[in-house]
Amino acid sequence: MLISFDDMKRPVALNGCDEMANAIGSILSGWSFHKVKGNKAPPPAIIITKTRQGYSRTSQWLEKPAVYPNIINAACDFLVDAFKCVVADDPSLLCMHTAAVEFGDGLYLFPSTYNAGKSTLTAHLAARGLKVFADDVLYITHDNLGMAPGVLPRLRQPLPEDGGETFDAFVASRRGPQSRRFIYLKMAPGELADYRQSLPIKGIIELHRDPEATMEMLPASTADTLKRTLLQNFSEQVSALETLDRLHGISEAAQRFTLRYPDGASAARYLIETLGAKPCQ
After folding, report:
1. By the 8 A CB rule, do 8 and 89 touch?
2. CB atoms within 10 A of CB 118
3. Is pLDDT of 276 > 90?
4. How far is CA 217 from the centre of its chain?
5. CA dihedral 194, 100, 120, 206 (to 10 degrees)
6. Using CA atoms, how far apart are residues 60 and 125, in angstroms rounded to an integer?
7. Most buried among 29, 89, 125, 195, by the most CB within 10 A?
8. Of the candidates 123, 194, 187, 130, the residue with the CA atom closest to the CA atom of residue 155
């Protein structure tokens, strides 16, 4: 079976695993795709084949097949290639590995760093009424707006034991597709930005989580923030010089901070109080 996504010029081939279409659709929000009829479609950009070992994916961006026995893990990893396909088809887009949450009239980004807790913090902020734009990947438009990728927020399993009552209740009421590795959150209306909705980037905060840390948010330099955003950009279609220029402009215009925090609940409360955010509901 071939499926065609509106924002991808080439289809996705599902060989012996038609069920993968529903799995992929279950973790997306606002994406439009349909089964390709006839035989005039271009060669597929991504091929997923069901094997004895699991769901095996090949694409031009993989040196060797990626194989996942669990269908939700396979759908989750498929998005890596899907994002690359979208930006390959739209050379104006940058694509950043970052979380993004709406604070008032703009976005604050939390660029990915190892074990910094960006997805958990994003869920804590959502539980307190803030709108999530992204918890892992964000598009950057040609005019440097942050654009929602239309993917449900995802938490790693097991869930944190120190989430607190608000977080635990929020996650319990929004449990979506899951595996032993991940759980996706099925957000209520207004909690997740519409696919391709865009807003200005007003702040960038690098996270450092340490259970022993005292809450502290310090100004960050343009140079440090630029370095972080460059490391998290994985679009290869925009030239290196243009990428540097655009990310420098974003970093220079944004409020820039480094946040050291002990846990997601206290960090969410601190950010809402410090940045003056209001619930989206």
Report:
1. yes
2. 26
3. no
4. 24
5. 180
6. 37
7. 125
8. 123
3-class secondary structure for the chain?
CEEEECCCCCCEEEECCCHHHHHHHHCECCCCEEECCCCCCCCCCEEEEEECCEEEEEECCCCCCEEECCHHHHHHHHHHHHHHHHHHHCCCCEEEEEEEEEECCEEEEEECCCCCCHHHHHHHHHHCCCCEEECCEEEECCCCEEECCCECCEEECCCCCCCCHHHHHHHHHCEEEECCCEEEECCCCCCECCCCCEEEEEEEEEEEECCCCCCEEEECCHHHHHHHHHHHECCCCCCHHHHHHHHHHHHHHCEEEEEEECCHHHHHHHHHHHHCCCCCC
Determine the Cα–Cα distance for residues 246 and 190; give it in Å rounded to an integer. Answer: 30
Residue range 42-59: mean pLDDT, rounded: 96
Q: How many whole angstroms separate alpha carbon 77 and alpha carbon 27? A: 11
Mean of the pLDDT values across residues 76-81? 96
Lowest mean pLDDT among 89-103, 133-147, 225-239: 225-239
Phi then psi for residue 26, to 5 deg, are: -70, -20
Q: Is pLDDT above 70 for 240? A: yes
- What pLDDT is recorded for position 91? 87
Asked if residues 13 and 2 have their Cβ atoms less than 8 Å apart, the reply is yes
> CB neighbours (10 Å) of residue 161?
6
Specify the pTM.
Answer: 0.94
Given a cut of 70, whether residue 280 has pLDDT beyond it is no
Residue 114 pLDDT > 80, yes or no? Answer: no
Residue 281 reports pLDDT greater than 60: no
